[in-house]
Amino acid sequence: MEPEVGVSPSGSSKHRLRFSGSVIRSYSLVIAIAAVWVIFDALTGGIFLEPRNFSNLMRQTAVTGILSVGMVMVIVTAEIDLSVGSLVGLSGMAAVMMQTVAHAGLLASLLIGLGVGLAVGALQGVLAADARIPSFIVTLGGLLAWRGAAQGISGGNTYPVEVPSFTALGQSYASRTTGIVLMVLSLAAIIWLVPHRRAMQKRHGLKSWSAAGVSFRVGLPSILIVAFVILLNAYAGIPIPVLILVAIACTGSFLIANTTFGRRLYAVGGNPEAARLSGINVRGQIFRAFCIVGLLSGVAGIIYAARLGSAGPDAGTLLELDAIAACVIGGASLMGGRGTVLGACLGALFMASLDNGMSLKDVPDFVQNIVKGGILVIAVGLDVLGRQRD
Amino acid sequence: MSHITKTFPGVRALDGVSLDLRAGEIHALVGENGAGKSTLMKILGGVYVQYGGEIRIDGKTRRFRSVRESEDAGIAVVFQELSLVPELSVGENIFLGREPSRLGVIEWEKLFSQAASLLRELNLEIDPRVALGTLGTGRQQLVEIAKALSHSARILVLDEPTAALTEAESESLFAILQALRQRGIGIIYVSQRLAEVFQLSDRITVLRDGKTAGTGPASQWDQPQLIARMVGREVSQLFPQTKRTPGEVVFEARHVSAGDPARRGRPVVDDVSFSLRRGEVLGIAGLMGAGRTELLMALFGAWPARTSGEVLIDGKPVKIEHPSDAIGHGIGFVTEDRKRSGLVLDESVLRNMTLVALERVSGSFVTNESSEIAASTKLSQSLRIKASSLFTVVRTLSGGNQQKVVLAKWLMNEARVLFLDEPTRGIDVGAKAEIYQLIDRLAQSGVAVILVSSELPEVLGLCDRILVLREGRISSEFSRAQATPEAVMACAIGQSAPGFTRHGASAYE
Asked: Which of A201, A342, B60, B107 has fewest C-beta within 10 Å?
């Protein structure tokens, strides 16, 4: 039984407090990213936020971001996937070798890359969900095995990408006009969605957002989107990998927040027994989450290889840790039942910003690792403290 | 303890409560859930260190800053949640954190012999070397008491000790408590089971809404008076006295058996057959371990071991292998332990309510929040769920409101057959009465209900028909008119000696 604090306290003050707490928490990551940017910009004498570097930073975020969208779905169900880095290597290698060895075209190599990712995800899903082998173990095995497979099929060699349109997936940019069109469309969506939601709250007699709340919810994202597009257009336009990340993040966010599938993911992670007795196919949900993360590892593997213009046997090493860190910094709980796609993507951006900024400053690799590790632990520590105070 | 005040953010949990305890006395502390009983005991036990008022022991004012300080002052508190480690042995649990040792090396012989003598003092035949987890819940509770006494406590606090105990285990606990009273130990006994309170205690203090609502000798009060003080009003009609006329058979079980997942051979449900009519409330009585929960789990397709038998809905045989099959046939299941298996505690009221009927109220793939809010608002109003909003996390609700959310989850799906397993466990008297009325209302509207309960008055007061389970089998069936507490108890226990049944029934009440 809970401490006897009695029936729910009258009034909505407690609710409002809790609500603003969660708002502050979700914006705290945005604030942290802004702070990191300002610091690096000062330290590098303005190079960090130059359009060229900003474009580069966004492209670096893409691979981790795509992985973290899949990872957060697995983490929400209280499982984990340690194999995504190795799977990026294997699927990228498979896609590129299709070109160099089998002389296949773009479509075939994409299908192979995605197919390898999906098949591995499905296999790991079956082992974790149906055979009930802890996913930590299944994917730890995968971490070793898929890396070994990538080394095996390549014989330890690095293969160059041969199809130019494949390379374009990692290296080219959407035209500036496309950027402007997308910007206008997303602004229109925000301007439509926010008041729509407020009208829904009013219709049901719920406490609705104040006028200030509405303008904040419309204004802040709009400013960020405009700034984002202008900065990227000032260099060469939106990089294709970033466009793919945005598309995947929007789809993933919709899937997890606005579908029965997403709702059940949270239930499965929050209380698997209650979910089972509510008729939810717990194993099926976990299996599907692993399929998604596998497929997205395939996407990430293709982009990774395309960006570098080649596939090496060690491509993607340690990316699983970046993806997990991104989810956790973005508010996901490894105990399951909590996490958002937006948070995971912001977490990926945060991690990539650290990487990029420290590389610009020629910080030695070992220091970068220590800093990233420390920040991960501190970030989660602060979050835990914040929750305890709630 | 005098004028104790404790506030949580937004709530005053205790408001000037006073309680005195004499040596060699059993002092019962009663009150509805949320009245402040546990909070008061947590202050005494040094769990909550911020409070107003003062605690005096032997006339000296004490202020405990930790559990350890409270223990050192001779206070031992046994909370509802067991604070034991199942993997460790009984002896290790008793001396957890205080193992007799020399230079940091544990002296095992000393530990086990001291544990054995402690257990002997309590007349417990438990080997201190066995793993605690191998004992039943009841015996684990007794080990917890042994642990409390190993601190040579002079004040023993028991918070709802019998909630998980069988009849026999409760009896042996009472014998031990009486022996401890003889030894001059003062006992504070927190309980919602009023019959026990009258059987056991010398004095009673009633808490209501964080205030003392009366203290006096147990002999001075009777049960209705006590309830009136607890709830601040007369609960004359706990059970709705309406007349129901059951319709045609909607649900039938034929020769249902369920195997024991831990052991081979002996089934936990053994060849059970019964039928259930539209608008009927069928009670299932029986002792703990008689197979009541297991029967419901098997019928719901949720039992982890082998099951056999046949289920018919509207006279047609159906296959139920997974809870989703049962749900598809219109069955709902309010499980025994709402926190473990009923609710996703960190999700909102709305999301818990729509968990089962998500596709029905929201959409087959893309969800529609607006229609979810509409459906949930309607149900939470008709069930009178008290929560600051639909988006409140259910963990923060009181037990009664949590249980209503679980019920709402099934009502949202328009269940036609509802299994209720201990639906009023751990909720206060007021919420209980509301749940009883709700069950009656549902039956009136044509829902067929199976009610499993350990509280005999509940079964007798609500059900049209009562099945008694014993060792996995149906031992007898009563109509409402035939059923008396004595007769039902006798069948549950499997004995018909009149003295024994009267005794059992009174302890049940």
From this structure: B60
Residues of chain A neighbouring B321 (CB-CB closer than 8 A):
none
* Residues B399 and B486 placed together within one structural domain of the fold: yes
B159-177 confidence digits (pLDDT tens): 888 766 767 778 888 888 8
- ipTM of this complex: 0.86
Q: Do B345 and A270 touch (CB under 8 A)?
A: yes
Q: Which two tokens stand for residue B185?
A: 């130990």
**pTM for the model:** 0.79
Task: Let me know if residue B243 belongs to a domain.
Answer: no
Q: What is the pLDDT of residues A330-372, one digit of tens each?
A: 989 899 999 999 999 999 999 999 999 999 999 999 999 999 8
Q: By the 8 A CB rule, do B185 and B192 touch?
A: no
How far is it, in rounded angstroms, from Cα B208 to Cα B441?
Answer: 29
Q: Are residues B107 and B209 in the same domain?
A: yes
Of B231, B250, B267, which residue sits at a domain end? B231
CATH number for position B174 = 3.40.50.300
Size of interface A-B (CB pairs under 8 A): 150
Beta-ladder partners of B156? B76, B187
Domain edge (last residue) among B201, B231, B261: B231
* Residue among A5, A259, A277 minimizing CB distance to B302: A277
User: From CA A169, how far away is CA A92, in angstroms rounded?
Assistant: 13
Strands (E), chain A: 159-160, 310-311
Residue A199: other Cβ atoms inside 10 A? 12
Q: Assess if residue B445 is contained within a domain.
A: yes
DSSP-derived pairing of the beta strands B26-30 and B11-17: unpaired
**B133 or A26, higher pLDDT:** B133
Q: Across-strand partners of B76? A: B156
Q: Which of B447, B455, B430 is closest to B230 using CA atoms?
A: B430
Residues B173 and B287 occupy one common structural domain: no
Q: Kindly state whether residues B291 and B159 are assigned to the same domain.
A: no
Select the residue of A5, A12, A271 nearest B345 (Cβ to Cβ): A271
For residue B430, the distance in angstroms to the closest alpha carbon of chain A comes to 12
pLDDT at B490: 75
Cα–Cα dist A170/A106, whole Å: 13
Same domain, B285 and B223: no
Q: Does one domain contain both B206 and B287?
A: no
How many other C-beta atoms are found inside a 10 Å radius of the C-beta of residue A337?
22
Record: contact A274-B355, CB cut-off 8 A: yes
The number of domains in chain B is 2
Q: What distance, in Å, lies between the first and last C-alpha atoms of chain B? A: 31
One of 1.10.10, 1.10.287, 1.10.3470, 3.40.50 is the CATH number of A45-171+240-389, namely 1.10.3470
Q: Please say whether the beta carbons of B303 and B323 come within 8 A.
A: no
Pick the residue from chain B with its C-alpha nearest to A200. Answer: B370
Residue carrying structure tokens 């990029």? A356
Mean of pLDDT over chain B: 84
Are B342 and A274 an interchain contact pair (Cβ–Cβ within 8 Å)? yes
Euclidean distance between CA atoms B165 and A139, whole angstroms: 43
Owning domain of residue B173: 2-231
State how far residue B159 is from chain A, nearest Cα, in angstroms: 11
Q: Which residues of A touch B356 (CB under 8 A)?
A: 278-279
